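Structure representation.

___
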Amino acid sequence: MPIITSMRVSTTHVKSPLRRGRKSKAKAAPTEAMAALRHFHDDLGDKIWGRFGFIDGFSEQENWYADSYLAISQGPIVVMIENYRSGLIWKLFMSVPEIREGMKKLGFKSPHFASAIA
């Protein structure tokens, strides 16, 4: 049976879904990413989460769980989850006049230019 993480399927060991920003990819597949997060929280809990956050990797099939932790990916995870949930990060980003003007000068078009928080 394959192991499903938020961004890939493997029949062997799974590197943490957080490694190299995989959890921060929630914007690309929000339904699948949120289902994976619920599984990680509800079913795996303390096996993959500890004092310093998520562990580095695991394999449910092999009942193997790393004893090392990740750190670099933690920030983008929280930011992308909040942005998916409320759009706050994008709204704040687009509220900066210099960002909007720079994007317009570069040829970007967006309905968010008019509706940004002023």
Remarks:
- The radius of gyration is 18 Å.
- Residues 3-71 form one domain.
- Confidence is low (pLDDT under 50) at residues 1-26.
